[in-house]
Amino acid sequence: MFKIKIKNKRSKMGEKTIMHYSSSQEILLVGEGNFSFAACLAKEFGSAVKMVATSFDPEESLMQKYSNVTSTLNELKGRGCTVLHEVDVHTMSQHPRLTNRRFDRIVFNFPHAGFILMEHNKIQIKLHQDLVKGYFTSAREMLTGSGEVHVTHKTTHPFSKWNIVKLAEEVGLFLVEEAQFTRADYPGYINKKGSGRKCNRTFRVGQCSTYKFAKPPLQPYFPS
């Protein structure tokens, strides 16, 4: 299900938004590569004090992989963003800097387990599914009551074989909305391959969506 996209706007109270995200939300970004998505949100909000942006790679590896990442990280920190490295989505709920925090939005753009086999290979698909399911499991524990877990993912074959919605349901999350994703809606965001010899190259996004998930609403309790 697709809904009409509402681009950048500013509320009467000074709240700033870009697409699905707001400066009033506590936001956790995981799997950042060159941190350009985090930088896009921070620039739009003007402040990133409510944002935490994380990478799986150590900071030293990022310097080797991505040009300009140092200036991007400095800009984020200058806007008040908490930047963390070596954060594994499987265990992030136990990270000492994250374990006591709850978030309104947790975001993973284009999750990928690495270029090991061909994308249509069943083993490769299973590796991707394990990554995404691990993310869902951890993220579910880190949500506020009305929080959402987001995944931006390609919807064409063979990526559709990942069965994103089913993976979420298996850990107790339900689909709130599937919204069409367009990279141009996020000025300055440059998606990268992230691994292999061509890690600093971008890749064609094509048809993809941002899937939004939430915990089921609490059922009312009627005493007998």
Automatic annotation (TrEMBL):
Transmembrane segments: none annotated. GO terms for molecular function: rRNA (uridine-N3-)-methyltransferase activity. InterPro entries: BMT5-like. Signal peptide: none annotated. One of its GO terms (cellular component) is cytoplasm. Residues 28-192 form the 25S rRNA (uridine-N(3))-methyltransferase BMT5-like domain. It holds the Pfam family BMT5-like. One of its GO terms (biological process) is rRNA base methylation. This is PREDICTED: At4g26485.
